[in-house]
Amino acid sequence: MSRLDAAGLTLALLSTTGCAATAASTVSSKQPQVHLASAWSLMWGDEFSGANGSRPNPKYWNTDIGNADVDGWGNKELQFYTDKLSNARLDGHGHLQIVALRNQQRLPCWNHLPCPYTSARLTTLGKVELTYGKVEARIKVPAGQGLLPAFWSLGKKEWPNGGELDIMEAVVETPNTVYGTLHGPGYSGEQGLGASKDLGAPLSGGYHTYTLIKRPNEIIWLVDGQQFHRVTAKDLRSGKTWVFEQPYYLLLNLAVGGNWPGAPLPTATFPQVMNVDYVRIWKETK
User: Fold this and answer.
1) Is-catalytic flag, 164?
2) Strand extents, DSSP E, 159-207
3) Model pLDDT for residues 166-210, shown as the tens digit of each residue
4) Can you give the pTM of this predicted structure?
5) How many Å is the Cα radius of gyration of the chain?
6) Which residue in the list 77, 129, 136, 164 is annotated as catalytic?
7) Contact 244, 166 (CB under 8 A)
8) In the chain, N or C: fewer CB atoms in 10 Å?
9) Per-residue pLDDT reduced to its tens digit, 228-255
């Protein structure tokens, strides 16, 4: 196993799990813009440059399988995550494709019925972790009704005590809007500290960069280089614990159905594809 630890960034080579996000309460978007640093040093990245039809690099990515526990990844979701190339593959042109499909097999859902869809959920647990720095992905989300594409991060303690950082979530009911949310013990789910930004055009119309800056006692969200959310330890309600001074691993997934987007309509079209151009991590230089 090789390991790199510099300025709070940890890269390791190891295995998998995680917990999904839910819609959260939003906070005012009228937040102070802060200095985002003039220089960054690239520490890690995946450019998804493999051959057409190949798997995401197993040095970096794990694949979760199933429709977890009794409540569908915490959100009553309707997809069964697989490790099949039909659900997660490289396209040969520098992109990762996470694909949601209608399912014809008897793959069990949380509701004791066969899951009507398959998709993929990739994690870097034990392989790529960030304590402090900047993480960014360039993503083109799908436009299908009932979908929830996400780029996010989890601590390794049991949820929500380890915290959750939703860097990007999107739903077709608000097609122009990106959501970013922080979850922790006593402020998770709908009590999470969230904000959103309307880009003035559908996110699905092209690629956008979704960025998180993680500093001691401060976390900042950006889309296409523009800050739209910031939370500090001082922003927590009295009695709540800030749990974010620890390593976090990354997740990319395309959920189908669930509490927030709702189930796809019978007329919804599949396959639906979430395209990821790159994922990169930098450390901050002064």
Assistant:
1) yes
2) 164-169, 177-183, 193-198
3) 999 999 999 999 999 999 999 998 999 999 999 999 999 999 999
4) 0.90
5) 18
6) 164
7) no
8) C
9) 999 999 999 999 999 999 999 999 999 9
CA–CA separation, 209 and 175 (whole Å): 16
Written as one string, the DSSP assignment of 76-123 is I--EEE---TTTEEE-SSS-EEEEEEE--S-PBPTTSSB-SEEE-EEE
CATH label of the domain that carries residue 204: 2.60.120.200
pLDDT above 90: residue 83: yes
Residues spanned by the domain of 253: 4-285
For the chain, the domain total comes to 1
Other C-beta atoms lying within 10 Å of the C-beta of residue 158: 10
pLDDT tens readout for residues 270-285:
999 999 999 999 999 9
**And the tokens for 253?**
């997934």
Contact 64, 72 (CB under 8 A): no
- Do β-strands 133-140 and 226-232 pair in parallel, antiparallel, or remain unpaired? unpaired
Q: Which residues pair with 128 in a beta bridge?
A: 11
Closest listed residue to residue 150, CA positions, set 141, 160, 159, 138: 141
Active site residue 284: no
